[in-house]
Description:
Blueprint: E1 2-6, H1 11-22, E2 29-36, E3 45-50, H2 52-66, E4 72-83, E5 87-95, H3 98-115, E6 118-124, E7 127-130
Parallel strand pairs: 1-4
Antiparallel strand pairs: 2-5, 3-4, 3-6, 4-5, 6-7
Amino acid sequence: MVELYDGALNVPEVLTRWYAQESTSNYGAYIPFVGTVRDEGGIEGLSFDVYEPILQSWFDAWVSKVAPLGATLKMAHSRGDVLLHESSYIAAVFSPKRRVALETIEAFVEDFKASAPIWKYDLINGDRIYARERSTAIAGAGILGAKS
């Protein structure tokens, strides 16, 4: 399940809802990851563009990958502006065993950073500036993923 929101994520609402959805699924582990916008480099926040069809395809591939392990993935991400100390990304793994959940959340978050079609911009003095130096080129993205 990929959830996209305009603006910052309501972390307590998302995590509580996900927990309630899976509370009777007999999972032994629920491991969330919450990404927050840090105060660095004089930014006021970050802004995000999301290419939804590729993001959904990438996520579906992960769902298929962890299904044989008995695990379930959930993810939420922001579109548009997210200010300092607000959340732009939440991921969670539910699984019967903690080791599966721990290994999956780490691999999922790292692959998200490297592969998800989400473009990040710094918000500085009210302007939206592409964060090229902190962005990762997406394999196979051609000119859209190129750093120059």
